[in-house]
Amino acid sequence: MSSLRILVVDDQELIRESLSIVLNMEEDIEVIGMAENGRVAVELCERQQPDVVLMDIHMPEMDGIVATRLIKNNWPQIRVIILTTFQELDYVVDALDIGAEGYLLKAIHPKDLATGIRLVNRGGTLISPNMARMMASQLKQNEPKSLNHGLSEREQQVLECLAQGLSNRETAEKLFLSEGTVKNYISSIYSKLDVRDRLQAVKKARDEGIVRN
Fold it and tell me: Which pTM does this prediction carry?
């Protein structure tokens, strides 16, 4: 059985050498090259066509995100695992969005890294559990606000009436509320939309698709 051919990309020589030593101990894995930045990584991918690239993010000359984009555009069959110490969610999203098959922290156990490489080579997607939790948490936090700024169903109805040009009295009659209650809802709407008056509220609601008309 032929070995998995790996390219290790990192601007720190110690990390490149350490990863190479660890991975070459695996019977079915062979490190065929090392690169100190994204530019060299792209050149080596063109010449050597590795199966999997272990890609650092922050490097001089060309960072890992740009290099990954170039590699995936030119050789989509080459699989890329982003390997970094940085845990910012934006990097995960960027890397996966441009086609990287995995994202792992450098602190991962060598055996887990080897297992991850095999998984990605078989067509799987690899992301560390804490990253998955962070992404799920952020999506959960952003979803309600991105849809309607947290407006309640009744506030949404009042906002629809504002967009239709109804007065407070007309809104109250339509929704079977008192005028005082309508005023309270409007104050809450202004606060949630971060606007000062009725015109701003209606404009923002229309621009963001919160109201239909």
Answer: 0.63
φ and ψ at residue 2, rounded to 5 degrees: -75, 150
Identify whether residues 164 and 88 lie together within a single domain: no
Cβ–Cβ under 8 Å, residues 38 and 11: no
Gap between the Cα atoms of 125 and 2, Å rounded: 22
DSSP annotation of 31: E
Helices (H), the chain: 13-24, 38-48, 64-74, 89-97, 110-121, 129-148, 153-163, 168-175, 179-193, 198-207
For 106, the domain range is 4-139
pLDDT tens, 129-175?
777 777 777 666 655 444 578 888 899 999 999 999 999 999 999 99
* Residue owning tokens 């005082």: 180
Instruction: State how far the Cα of 8 lies from the Cα of 36, in Å rounded to an integer.
Output: 9
* Residue that has been written with the tokens 């792992």 in this structure: 104
Q: Give the Cα separation of 110 and 126 in Å (integer).
A: 15
